[in-house]
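Quick review question:
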């Protein structure tokens, strides 16, 4: 089993993730470990993404996500381990994984995403990669951060940088 335990992202965090990530009608969004499908719903319904794919390996969460997206066009929920799903179609990937899982995901991102693809992470950075943008904020006494990476901009002159969030 890969990934982090399911912790639902509040709606205001999801909105900031999708806005900072630039999700619009030209976006193909993949949510790795989509949980209950809340990001998939918001990307499709509120940001009018061209296509949104949620990947969730836990059967119960997958069923919830399927129910939430049943009437939305251009959404797909895949019951699988995201390691086994080709994400090369995505131009935006959303994640809420641990830092150690993000380290492991770097190879998948480099192997499968095109240069210029955006990765939007909730709370945990991708160690060794330089963030293009980030935002920290507090809501209801909880602190959050959204970190945005662009494949191809995470390194300087071919060397990984420790700048930005990790």
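Suggested answer, residue by residue:
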């Amino acid at each position: 089993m890969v990934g982090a335990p399911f912790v639902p992202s509040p709606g205001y965090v999801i909105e900031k993730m999708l806005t900072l990530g630039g999700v619009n009608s030209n976006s193909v969004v993949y949510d790795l470990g989509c949980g209950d499908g809340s990001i998939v719903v918001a990307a499709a319904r509120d940001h009018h993404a061209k296509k949104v794919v949620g990947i969730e390996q836990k059967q119960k969460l997958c069923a919830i996500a399927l129910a939430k997206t049943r009437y939305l066009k251009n959404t797909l929920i895949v019951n699988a381990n995201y390691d086994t799903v080709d994400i090369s179609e995505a131009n935006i990937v959303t994640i809420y994984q641990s830092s150690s899982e993000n380290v492991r995901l770097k190879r998948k991102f480099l192997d499968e995403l095109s240069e210029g693809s955006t990765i939007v992470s909730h709370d945990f950075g991708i160690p060794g990669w330089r963030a293009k943008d980030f935002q920290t904020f507090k809501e209801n006494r909880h602190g959050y951060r959204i970190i945005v990476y662009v494949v191809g901009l995470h390194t300087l002159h071919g060397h990984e940088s420790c700048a930005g969030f990790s």
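Why it works: The first helix runs from residue 11 to 20. The chain has four helices and nine strands.
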